[in-house]
Request: fold
Amino acid sequence: MQKQSQIDKNFSYSNNIILELKKKFQPKPHLVIAKPMTYAVTDVKMSEYAIDSINKVRLDNGKNPISHDSRAYDLALARAKDMYKYDYLDHKNPHTGTCSNNLKSEFGFDQKEGLVENAAIYNVQQDLAGPPVTDIIDAWMKSTGHKYNLLYYDHKSGGFACYGRYCVFLGVSDGGYTGSTSTECHTAKEGERFFAKLANCSDQKMLDYESLQKQFKEIRMEYEKIPSVTHSEIEYLKAKAVHDDLDDLRKKLESFEC
Reply:
């Protein structure tokens, strides 16, 4: 008689959300030799599969599909390797200060292209054919910040990679969330605090927030083009008007409540 066994896969996410996922399987009737745990490393094909899976979720939520970006895959793999090497789970390396945003030029991204990262770590007790991509995406969809990134309206492309149990998704858009060309790094704790106020928002409220952020981003990108020194009163007044609009929208975003 075959005995039923169980794999427990525990996921830890960058905002300290832990999801326990259990799957049952029937082992083969012959003797099974125990092997040490190994962790599969994703390749481009796996990344393309992940983006296809993300697109299904995006389409189910009324968002445009994104294309697979080989640059994003390469950088996501580099980020996963970095987390494995330094043994951390965060959007910023606590030892070197590196992050996706300040590494992007090394991987062929323009300054105006913004990258937003999801990160996860998975644990298994037996060998897997590959990382549980759809389980990771499903768990991200249960986290406000990670879900927002997967469904971000302005993403045009993305990449996914895993190394040594660490998995990373990078969404690519012009200007990221804010329209800024800054290469500043942010930690997972900062992201958690940022999205905490949106945790209980209804779908309509999230659309309202997205609309405000879209306006902010468009004006921020316009503001980024204004010269630091104006040469006429007209230029000054135009710059001031854009600045005032930007400041007004910033206050609305900061005070937004569900």
